[in-house]
Design brief:
The complex is a heterodimer of chains A (about 400) and B (about 80). Chain A is globular, with a radius of gyration of 20 Å. Chain A is built from 14 helices and 16 strands. In chain A, the strands form three sheets. In chain A, strands 1, 2, 5, 6, 7, 8, 9, 10, 11, 13, 15 and 16 form a twelve-stranded mixed β-sheet that branches. Chain A has a two-stranded antiparallel ribbon with strand order 3-4. Chain B is an all-alpha fold and about 80 residues long. Chain B has a single domain, classed as ACP-like (Non-ribosomal Peptide Synthetase Peptidyl Carrier Protein, Chain A, Orthogonal Bundle). Helices cover about 55% and strands about 0% of the residues of chain B. Chain B has four helices and no strands. In chain B, α1 crosses α2. Classes of the chains: A alpha/beta (about 400), B mainly alpha (about 80). At the A-B interface, α3 of A face α2 of B.
Chain lengths: ~400, ~80
Amino acid sequence: MSTSHVAITGLGLATPAGLGVDSSWEGLLAGVSPASTDPNLEGLPVDISCRIPGFDATQMLGRKAARRLDPFVQYASWTARQAVTDAGLDPETWDGPRVGVVIGCGLGGTLTWETQHQRMLEQGPERVSAMLIPMLIPNMVAGQVAMDMGCTGPNLVTATACASGATAIGTARDLLRSGACDVVLAGGTEAGLTPLSITGFAQMGALSTRLDEPEIASRPFDVDRDGFVAAEACGIVVLERDEDARARGAHRRAMVAGYGASADGHHITAPDPEGGGAERAIRAALADAGVGPDDVDHVNAHGTSTPLNDVSEARTLQRVCGGEFSVTSTKGVTGHSLGAAGAIEAAFSALTIQHGLVPPTANLESQDPEIGLDVVSKAPREQRVEVAMSNSFGFGGQNAVLVLTAP
Amino acid sequence: MNPIYEKVKGVLVDKFGVEESEVTPEASFEDLDLDSLDLVEFALAAEEELGVRISDEEAEQLETLSDTVKLLEEKGASA
Protein backbone atom coordinates (compact mmCIF):
# COMPACT_ATOMS: atom_id res chain seq x y z
CA MET A 1 0.00 0.00 0.00
CA SER A 2 1.44 3.32 -1.12
CA THR A 3 1.14 6.17 1.34
CA SER A 4 1.39 8.80 -1.35
CA HIS A 5 -1.11 11.59 -1.31
CA VAL A 6 -3.91 11.73 -3.77
CA ALA A 7 -4.68 14.83 -5.81
CA ILE A 8 -8.04 16.33 -6.70
CA THR A 9 -7.61 17.02 -10.41
CA GLY A 10 -11.22 17.66 -11.37
CA LEU A 11 -14.38 19.02 -9.78
CA GLY A 12 -18.04 18.89 -10.69
CA LEU A 13 -20.81 20.47 -8.63
CA ALA A 14 -24.56 20.83 -8.83
CA THR A 15 -25.73 22.42 -5.58
CA PRO A 16 -28.47 24.75 -4.37
CA ALA A 17 -25.79 27.48 -4.43
CA GLY A 18 -25.49 27.07 -8.19
CA LEU A 19 -25.29 24.75 -11.16
CA GLY A 20 -21.63 24.10 -11.92
CA VAL A 21 -18.45 24.70 -9.92
CA ASP A 22 -18.11 28.43 -10.57
CA SER A 23 -21.72 29.33 -9.86
CA SER A 24 -21.78 27.12 -6.74
CA TRP A 25 -18.66 28.84 -5.43
CA GLU A 26 -20.01 32.31 -6.22
CA GLY A 27 -23.30 31.45 -4.52
CA LEU A 28 -21.43 30.21 -1.49
CA LEU A 29 -19.31 33.36 -1.22
CA ALA A 30 -22.45 35.51 -1.50
CA GLY A 31 -23.59 33.82 1.71
CA VAL A 32 -27.30 33.90 0.91
CA SER A 33 -29.45 30.83 1.40
CA PRO A 34 -31.66 29.90 -1.56
CA ALA A 35 -34.05 27.93 0.69
CA SER A 36 -37.66 28.50 -0.26
CA THR A 37 -41.16 27.12 0.00
CA ASP A 38 -41.26 23.96 -2.11
CA PRO A 39 -44.43 23.41 -4.17
CA ASN A 40 -43.71 19.67 -4.22
CA LEU A 41 -44.00 19.58 -0.43
CA GLU A 42 -47.24 21.57 -0.23
CA GLY A 43 -49.46 20.72 2.71
CA LEU A 44 -46.77 18.80 4.61
CA PRO A 45 -45.50 19.59 8.13
CA VAL A 46 -42.29 20.98 6.61
CA ASP A 47 -42.56 22.47 3.14
CA ILE A 48 -39.22 24.25 2.63
CA SER A 49 -36.13 22.99 0.87
CA CYS A 50 -33.01 23.91 -1.08
CA ARG A 51 -33.14 22.75 -4.70
CA ILE A 52 -30.51 22.83 -7.43
CA PRO A 53 -31.39 25.78 -9.69
CA GLY A 54 -31.84 25.26 -13.40
CA PHE A 55 -31.26 21.53 -13.75
CA ASP A 56 -33.06 20.47 -16.94
CA ALA A 57 -32.47 16.75 -17.42
CA THR A 58 -33.90 16.59 -20.93
CA GLN A 59 -31.74 19.43 -22.16
CA MET A 60 -28.61 18.44 -20.22
CA LEU A 61 -28.73 14.65 -20.58
CA GLY A 62 -31.23 13.86 -23.33
CA ARG A 63 -34.75 12.53 -23.30
CA LYS A 64 -33.86 8.94 -22.60
CA ALA A 65 -31.90 9.79 -19.46
CA ALA A 66 -34.65 12.17 -18.38
CA ARG A 67 -37.16 9.34 -18.61
CA ARG A 68 -35.14 6.41 -17.32
CA LEU A 69 -32.99 7.84 -14.52
CA ASP A 70 -34.11 9.01 -11.11
CA PRO A 71 -32.94 12.57 -10.35
CA PHE A 72 -30.21 11.36 -7.97
CA VAL A 73 -28.63 9.55 -10.93
CA GLN A 74 -29.29 12.39 -13.38
CA TYR A 75 -27.43 14.81 -11.11
CA ALA A 76 -24.44 12.51 -10.86
CA SER A 77 -24.37 11.75 -14.59
CA TRP A 78 -24.10 15.42 -15.42
CA THR A 79 -21.76 16.31 -12.55
CA ALA A 80 -19.37 13.42 -13.26
CA ARG A 81 -19.01 14.60 -16.86
CA GLN A 82 -18.25 18.10 -15.61
CA ALA A 83 -15.59 16.75 -13.27
CA VAL A 84 -13.92 14.64 -15.97
CA THR A 85 -13.87 17.59 -18.36
CA ASP A 86 -12.42 19.77 -15.62
CA ALA A 87 -9.70 17.19 -15.05
CA GLY A 88 -8.77 17.29 -18.72
CA LEU A 89 -9.36 13.53 -19.07
CA ASP A 90 -10.97 11.90 -22.08
CA PRO A 91 -13.24 8.88 -21.51
CA GLU A 92 -12.71 7.93 -25.15
CA THR A 93 -9.06 7.22 -24.57
CA TRP A 94 -8.62 6.35 -20.90
CA ASP A 95 -7.93 2.80 -19.72
CA GLY A 96 -11.46 2.01 -18.51
CA PRO A 97 -10.68 -0.97 -16.24
CA ARG A 98 -8.28 1.29 -14.29
CA VAL A 99 -10.98 3.91 -13.66
CA GLY A 100 -13.14 3.41 -10.56
CA VAL A 101 -16.35 5.07 -9.41
CA VAL A 102 -17.31 5.51 -5.75
CA ILE A 103 -20.37 7.63 -5.05
CA GLY A 104 -22.18 8.14 -1.76
CA CYS A 105 -25.95 8.28 -1.48
CA GLY A 106 -28.16 8.35 1.58
CA LEU A 107 -31.60 7.54 0.27
CA GLY A 108 -31.57 6.35 -3.36
CA GLY A 109 -34.43 6.97 -5.76
CA THR A 110 -37.10 8.26 -3.43
CA LEU A 111 -39.04 10.05 -6.18
CA THR A 112 -39.34 6.81 -8.15
CA TRP A 113 -40.22 4.82 -5.03
CA GLU A 114 -42.90 7.21 -3.84
CA THR A 115 -44.43 7.78 -7.28
CA GLN A 116 -44.67 4.09 -8.11
CA HIS A 117 -45.98 3.16 -4.67
CA GLN A 118 -48.79 5.64 -5.10
CA ARG A 119 -49.46 4.23 -8.55
CA MET A 120 -49.73 0.72 -7.16
CA LEU A 121 -52.17 1.79 -4.46
CA GLU A 122 -54.31 3.79 -6.89
CA GLN A 123 -54.15 1.71 -10.08
CA GLY A 124 -53.00 -1.74 -8.97
CA PRO A 125 -49.75 -3.68 -9.15
CA GLU A 126 -50.03 -4.23 -12.90
CA ARG A 127 -49.42 -0.53 -13.44
CA VAL A 128 -46.11 -0.50 -11.60
CA SER A 129 -43.25 0.45 -13.87
CA ALA A 130 -40.70 -2.14 -14.94
CA MET A 131 -38.19 0.67 -14.38
CA LEU A 132 -38.99 0.88 -10.65
CA ILE A 133 -36.06 -1.19 -9.40
CA PRO A 134 -33.37 0.04 -11.82
CA MET A 135 -34.41 3.62 -11.09
CA LEU A 136 -34.45 3.42 -7.30
CA ILE A 137 -31.55 1.20 -6.24
CA PRO A 138 -28.84 3.45 -4.79
CA ASN A 139 -25.94 1.59 -6.46
CA MET A 140 -27.33 2.43 -9.91
CA VAL A 141 -25.68 5.82 -9.76
CA ALA A 142 -22.16 4.38 -9.88
CA GLY A 143 -23.27 1.85 -12.48
CA GLN A 144 -24.72 4.60 -14.67
CA VAL A 145 -21.52 6.66 -14.55
CA ALA A 146 -19.63 3.54 -15.63
CA MET A 147 -22.02 3.02 -18.56
CA ASP A 148 -21.86 6.65 -19.47
CA MET A 149 -18.09 7.04 -19.55
CA GLY A 150 -16.65 3.56 -19.77
CA CYS A 151 -15.24 3.42 -16.25
CA THR A 152 -15.10 -0.33 -15.78
CA GLY A 153 -12.87 -0.60 -12.71
CA PRO A 154 -14.15 -1.02 -9.13
CA ASN A 155 -17.62 0.50 -8.86
CA LEU A 156 -19.69 1.01 -5.74
CA VAL A 157 -21.99 3.22 -3.72
CA THR A 158 -21.32 4.04 -0.09
CA ALA A 159 -24.16 4.49 2.40
CA THR A 160 -23.22 6.16 5.68
CA ALA A 161 -26.20 8.54 5.65
CA CYS A 162 -25.01 12.14 5.87
CA ALA A 163 -21.38 11.02 5.75
CA SER A 164 -21.79 9.01 2.53
CA GLY A 165 -20.06 11.51 0.24
CA ALA A 166 -17.01 11.76 2.51
CA THR A 167 -16.88 8.00 2.95
CA ALA A 168 -16.89 7.69 -0.84
CA ILE A 169 -13.92 10.04 -1.24
CA GLY A 170 -12.01 8.23 1.52
CA THR A 171 -12.76 4.86 -0.03
CA ALA A 172 -11.73 6.13 -3.45
CA ARG A 173 -8.48 7.41 -1.98
CA ASP A 174 -7.75 3.88 -0.73
CA LEU A 175 -8.41 2.40 -4.20
CA LEU A 176 -5.68 4.70 -5.53
CA ARG A 177 -3.26 4.02 -2.70
CA SER A 178 -3.66 0.26 -3.08
CA GLY A 179 -2.99 0.50 -6.80
CA ALA A 180 -6.39 -0.95 -7.74
CA CYS A 181 -7.18 2.14 -9.82
CA ASP A 182 -5.33 4.93 -11.58
CA VAL A 183 -8.28 7.33 -11.63
CA VAL A 184 -11.37 7.35 -9.41
CA LEU A 185 -14.48 9.48 -9.80
CA ALA A 186 -15.73 9.96 -6.25
CA GLY A 187 -18.43 11.99 -4.61
CA GLY A 188 -22.00 12.00 -3.42
CA THR A 189 -25.47 12.63 -4.75
CA GLU A 190 -28.92 13.08 -3.24
CA ALA A 191 -32.36 13.93 -4.57
CA GLY A 192 -34.58 13.11 -1.63
CA LEU A 193 -36.85 16.17 -1.57
CA THR A 194 -39.94 14.02 -1.89
CA PRO A 195 -43.05 14.12 0.28
CA LEU A 196 -42.63 10.89 2.23
CA SER A 197 -38.89 11.26 2.79
CA ILE A 198 -39.07 14.86 3.94
CA THR A 199 -42.01 14.10 6.19
CA GLY A 200 -39.92 11.33 7.75
CA PHE A 201 -37.20 13.83 8.63
CA ALA A 202 -39.84 16.28 9.85
CA GLN A 203 -41.39 13.69 12.14
CA MET A 204 -37.99 13.08 13.71
CA GLY A 205 -37.79 16.76 14.60
CA ALA A 206 -34.61 17.07 12.53
CA LEU A 207 -35.85 19.86 10.24
CA SER A 208 -36.17 23.57 10.83
CA THR A 209 -39.78 24.66 11.19
CA ARG A 210 -39.06 28.29 10.33
CA LEU A 211 -41.48 27.87 7.44
CA ASP A 212 -42.40 31.55 7.06
CA GLU A 213 -38.76 32.60 6.67
CA PRO A 214 -37.13 29.78 4.72
CA GLU A 215 -34.17 31.92 3.63
CA ILE A 216 -32.99 32.26 7.24
CA ALA A 217 -33.99 28.76 8.42
CA SER A 218 -30.59 27.12 7.93
CA ARG A 219 -28.40 28.93 10.49
CA PRO A 220 -25.55 26.74 11.71
CA PHE A 221 -24.00 27.70 15.07
CA ASP A 222 -26.60 30.45 15.59
CA VAL A 223 -28.31 30.55 18.96
CA ASP A 224 -31.72 30.50 17.23
CA ARG A 225 -31.09 27.44 15.03
CA ASP A 226 -33.85 24.85 15.14
CA GLY A 227 -32.93 22.12 12.67
CA PHE A 228 -31.66 21.62 9.16
CA VAL A 229 -33.15 22.53 5.80
CA ALA A 230 -33.20 19.53 3.48
CA ALA A 231 -31.38 19.93 0.20
CA GLU A 232 -30.52 18.09 -2.98
CA ALA A 233 -27.04 18.24 -4.49
CA CYS A 234 -24.26 16.39 -6.19
CA GLY A 235 -20.51 16.75 -6.00
CA ILE A 236 -17.97 14.63 -7.86
CA VAL A 237 -14.19 14.88 -7.70
CA VAL A 238 -11.61 13.25 -9.94
CA LEU A 239 -8.84 11.71 -7.87
CA GLU A 240 -5.43 10.55 -9.04
CA ARG A 241 -2.19 9.64 -7.30
CA ASP A 242 -0.13 12.78 -6.96
CA GLU A 243 2.78 11.41 -8.98
CA ASP A 244 0.43 10.51 -11.84
CA ALA A 245 -1.24 13.91 -11.73
CA ARG A 246 2.13 15.67 -11.80
CA ALA A 247 3.38 13.45 -14.60
CA ARG A 248 0.54 14.42 -16.90
CA GLY A 249 0.67 18.06 -15.87
CA ALA A 250 -2.81 18.04 -14.35
CA HIS A 251 -4.14 21.03 -12.42
CA ARG A 252 -4.11 19.89 -8.80
CA ARG A 253 -6.69 21.88 -6.85
CA ALA A 254 -5.90 20.23 -3.49
CA MET A 255 -4.70 16.97 -2.00
CA VAL A 256 -6.79 14.40 -0.17
CA ALA A 257 -4.13 13.87 2.46
CA GLY A 258 -6.05 12.08 5.19
CA TYR A 259 -9.19 10.10 5.84
CA GLY A 260 -10.53 8.86 9.16
CA ALA A 261 -13.70 6.90 9.88
CA SER A 262 -15.40 5.64 13.00
CA ALA A 263 -18.71 4.70 14.57
CA ASP A 264 -20.22 6.27 17.68
CA GLY A 265 -21.87 3.04 18.77
CA HIS A 266 -24.22 5.25 20.74
CA HIS A 267 -27.68 5.99 19.27
CA ILE A 268 -29.60 5.61 16.01
CA THR A 269 -29.78 9.33 15.30
CA ALA A 270 -28.35 11.44 18.15
CA PRO A 271 -24.64 12.23 18.11
CA ASP A 272 -22.61 10.98 21.06
CA PRO A 273 -22.68 14.03 23.38
CA GLU A 274 -19.08 13.30 24.35
CA GLY A 275 -18.11 13.29 20.67
CA GLY A 276 -15.96 10.20 21.15
CA GLY A 277 -16.62 8.77 17.70
CA ALA A 278 -16.14 12.09 15.96
CA GLU A 279 -12.91 12.66 17.86
CA ARG A 280 -11.52 9.28 16.82
CA ALA A 281 -12.34 9.97 13.17
CA ILE A 282 -10.70 13.41 13.34
CA ARG A 283 -7.57 12.04 15.02
CA ALA A 284 -7.37 9.19 12.53
CA ALA A 285 -7.67 11.57 9.58
CA LEU A 286 -4.99 13.90 10.96
CA ALA A 287 -2.62 11.02 11.68
CA ASP A 288 -3.25 9.61 8.21
CA ALA A 289 -2.38 13.00 6.70
CA GLY A 290 0.75 13.24 8.83
CA VAL A 291 -0.30 16.54 10.40
CA GLY A 292 -0.88 17.47 14.02
CA PRO A 293 -4.07 18.84 15.61
CA ASP A 294 -2.38 22.25 15.84
CA ASP A 295 -1.73 22.33 12.09
CA VAL A 296 -5.38 22.63 11.08
CA ASP A 297 -6.03 26.06 9.55
CA HIS A 298 -9.64 25.66 8.61
CA VAL A 299 -12.61 23.37 9.25
CA ASN A 300 -15.59 22.93 6.95
CA ALA A 301 -17.85 21.71 9.71
CA HIS A 302 -20.67 19.22 9.47
CA GLY A 303 -22.62 22.14 11.03
CA THR A 304 -26.13 20.99 10.22
CA SER A 305 -27.95 23.74 12.13
CA THR A 306 -29.53 21.21 14.49
CA PRO A 307 -29.30 22.08 18.18
CA LEU A 308 -27.49 18.83 19.06
CA ASN A 309 -24.97 18.52 16.25
CA ASP A 310 -23.55 22.00 16.33
CA VAL A 311 -22.77 22.03 20.05
CA SER A 312 -21.38 18.52 20.10
CA GLU A 313 -19.21 19.15 17.03
CA ALA A 314 -17.93 22.46 18.41
CA ARG A 315 -16.91 20.86 21.72
CA THR A 316 -15.11 18.10 19.90
CA LEU A 317 -13.23 20.52 17.65
CA GLN A 318 -12.17 22.68 20.60
CA ARG A 319 -10.97 19.66 22.51
CA VAL A 320 -9.05 18.06 19.66
CA CYS A 321 -7.69 20.91 17.53
CA GLY A 322 -5.64 23.12 19.80
CA GLY A 323 -4.48 25.83 17.42
CA GLU A 324 -6.22 28.72 15.76
CA PHE A 325 -8.47 27.70 12.94
CA SER A 326 -11.40 29.23 11.09
CA VAL A 327 -14.69 27.35 10.84
CA THR A 328 -17.48 27.57 8.34
CA SER A 329 -20.64 25.60 7.72
CA THR A 330 -21.56 25.87 4.08
CA LYS A 331 -24.91 24.30 4.97
CA GLY A 332 -26.06 27.81 5.89
CA VAL A 333 -26.25 28.42 2.16
CA THR A 334 -26.81 24.98 0.68
CA GLY A 335 -28.95 23.37 3.35
CA HIS A 336 -28.19 19.76 4.21
CA SER A 337 -27.87 17.56 1.14
CA LEU A 338 -27.54 14.34 3.16
CA GLY A 339 -25.50 11.79 1.19
CA ALA A 340 -24.09 14.49 -1.07
CA ALA A 341 -23.02 16.81 1.76
CA GLY A 342 -19.63 15.25 2.51
CA ALA A 343 -18.67 15.39 -1.16
CA ILE A 344 -19.76 18.95 -1.90
CA GLU A 345 -18.10 20.11 1.31
CA ALA A 346 -14.84 18.39 0.40
CA ALA A 347 -15.07 20.21 -2.93
CA PHE A 348 -15.74 23.50 -1.14
CA SER A 349 -12.73 22.85 1.10
CA ALA A 350 -10.59 22.30 -2.00
CA LEU A 351 -11.86 25.59 -3.44
CA THR A 352 -11.14 27.33 -0.12
CA ILE A 353 -7.53 26.12 -0.33
CA GLN A 354 -7.27 27.04 -4.00
CA HIS A 355 -8.69 30.57 -3.69
CA GLY A 356 -7.51 31.44 -0.17
CA LEU A 357 -11.09 32.39 0.73
CA VAL A 358 -13.30 30.98 3.46
CA PRO A 359 -16.99 31.21 2.55
CA PRO A 360 -19.21 32.67 5.28
CA THR A 361 -21.73 30.72 7.33
CA ALA A 362 -25.06 32.13 6.16
CA ASN A 363 -27.58 33.41 8.68
CA LEU A 364 -25.17 33.38 11.62
CA GLU A 365 -26.45 36.46 13.45
CA SER A 366 -25.84 35.60 17.08
CA GLN A 367 -23.40 32.79 17.78
CA ASP A 368 -24.52 30.26 20.36
CA PRO A 369 -22.50 31.09 23.52
CA GLU A 370 -21.85 27.37 23.97
CA ILE A 371 -19.97 27.37 20.67
CA GLY A 372 -16.54 28.86 21.24
CA LEU A 373 -15.28 28.60 17.67
CA ASP A 374 -14.00 31.20 15.24
CA VAL A 375 -16.92 30.85 12.85
CA VAL A 376 -16.72 32.95 9.68
CA SER A 377 -19.95 34.83 9.02
CA LYS A 378 -21.34 37.72 6.98
CA ALA A 379 -18.60 37.87 4.34
CA PRO A 380 -15.85 35.65 2.93
CA ARG A 381 -12.58 35.79 4.85
CA GLU A 382 -9.23 35.88 3.09
CA GLN A 383 -7.06 33.19 4.60
CA ARG A 384 -4.16 31.17 3.34
CA VAL A 385 -5.20 27.60 4.11
CA GLU A 386 -2.59 24.84 4.03
CA VAL A 387 -4.56 22.24 5.99
CA ALA A 388 -8.35 22.01 5.87
CA MET A 389 -10.57 19.47 7.52
CA SER A 390 -14.06 18.49 6.39
CA ASN A 391 -16.31 16.72 8.90
CA SER A 392 -19.28 14.51 8.09
CA PHE A 393 -21.41 12.64 10.58
CA GLY A 394 -24.27 10.33 9.66
CA PHE A 395 -27.35 8.90 11.32
CA GLY A 396 -26.33 5.51 12.60
CA GLY A 397 -23.37 7.18 14.30
CA GLN A 398 -21.09 6.93 11.28
CA ASN A 399 -18.32 9.51 11.06
CA ALA A 400 -16.06 10.35 8.13
CA VAL A 401 -13.40 13.06 8.22
CA LEU A 402 -11.25 14.21 5.32
CA VAL A 403 -8.07 16.26 5.59
CA LEU A 404 -7.26 18.29 2.49
CA THR A 405 -3.98 20.09 1.98
CA ALA A 406 -2.57 22.60 -0.46
CA PRO A 407 -0.82 20.95 -3.42
CA MET B 1 -53.18 6.91 -41.64
CA ASN B 2 -54.19 3.94 -39.47
CA PRO B 3 -55.60 5.39 -36.24
CA ILE B 4 -54.00 2.67 -34.11
CA TYR B 5 -50.63 3.40 -35.66
CA GLU B 6 -51.16 7.06 -34.85
CA LYS B 7 -51.90 6.17 -31.22
CA VAL B 8 -48.76 4.03 -31.01
CA LYS B 9 -46.75 6.85 -32.50
CA GLY B 10 -48.24 9.28 -29.98
CA VAL B 11 -47.25 7.01 -27.07
CA LEU B 12 -43.70 6.66 -28.37
CA VAL B 13 -43.26 10.39 -28.88
CA ASP B 14 -45.04 11.62 -25.73
CA LYS B 15 -44.10 8.95 -23.18
CA PHE B 16 -40.81 7.62 -24.50
CA GLY B 17 -39.34 10.79 -25.91
CA VAL B 18 -38.76 9.29 -29.35
CA GLU B 19 -38.23 11.81 -32.16
CA GLU B 20 -41.35 11.96 -34.34
CA SER B 21 -39.25 11.72 -37.50
CA GLU B 22 -37.80 8.38 -36.36
CA VAL B 23 -41.20 6.74 -36.03
CA THR B 24 -42.00 4.74 -39.19
CA PRO B 25 -44.00 1.52 -39.65
CA GLU B 26 -40.77 -0.34 -40.46
CA ALA B 27 -38.88 0.97 -37.42
CA SER B 28 -38.03 -1.63 -34.77
CA PHE B 29 -38.00 -0.93 -31.05
CA GLU B 30 -34.27 -1.45 -31.20
CA ASP B 31 -34.00 1.24 -33.90
CA LEU B 32 -35.80 3.58 -31.50
CA ASP B 33 -33.32 2.73 -28.72
CA LEU B 34 -35.96 0.99 -26.62
CA ASP B 35 -34.95 -2.13 -24.67
CA SER B 36 -36.90 -4.99 -23.08
CA LEU B 37 -37.80 -2.90 -20.01
CA ASP B 38 -39.12 -0.18 -22.28
CA LEU B 39 -41.25 -2.79 -24.04
CA VAL B 40 -42.89 -3.70 -20.74
CA GLU B 41 -43.54 -0.01 -20.20
CA PHE B 42 -44.86 0.29 -23.73
CA ALA B 43 -47.30 -2.55 -23.13
CA LEU B 44 -48.64 -0.73 -20.05
CA ALA B 45 -49.03 2.49 -22.00
CA ALA B 46 -50.75 0.70 -24.89
CA GLU B 47 -53.21 -0.83 -22.46
CA GLU B 48 -54.02 2.60 -21.06
CA GLU B 49 -54.40 4.18 -24.49
CA LEU B 50 -56.06 1.40 -26.45
CA GLY B 51 -57.71 -0.78 -23.86
CA VAL B 52 -56.06 -4.08 -24.78
CA ARG B 53 -53.52 -6.00 -22.81
CA ILE B 54 -50.26 -7.15 -24.34
CA SER B 55 -48.66 -9.88 -22.24
CA ASP B 56 -44.96 -9.79 -21.41
CA GLU B 57 -44.47 -12.80 -23.71
CA GLU B 58 -46.20 -11.01 -26.59
CA ALA B 59 -44.24 -7.83 -25.91
CA GLU B 60 -40.97 -9.75 -26.14
CA GLN B 61 -41.89 -10.96 -29.64
CA LEU B 62 -42.61 -7.51 -31.02
CA GLU B 63 -40.05 -6.20 -33.47
CA THR B 64 -41.40 -3.47 -35.73
CA LEU B 65 -44.14 -0.95 -35.20
CA SER B 66 -46.23 -2.51 -37.98
CA ASP B 67 -46.04 -5.87 -36.10
CA THR B 68 -47.23 -4.02 -33.05
CA VAL B 69 -50.14 -2.38 -34.81
CA LYS B 70 -51.13 -5.75 -36.30
CA LEU B 71 -51.12 -7.41 -32.88
CA LEU B 72 -53.15 -4.58 -31.37
CA GLU B 73 -55.70 -4.83 -34.20
CA GLU B 74 -55.98 -8.62 -33.75
CA LYS B 75 -56.70 -8.03 -30.11
CA GLY B 76 -59.51 -5.68 -31.02
CA ALA B 77 -57.89 -2.39 -30.10
CA SER B 78 -59.94 0.64 -30.93
CA ALA B 79 -58.33 4.03 -31.22
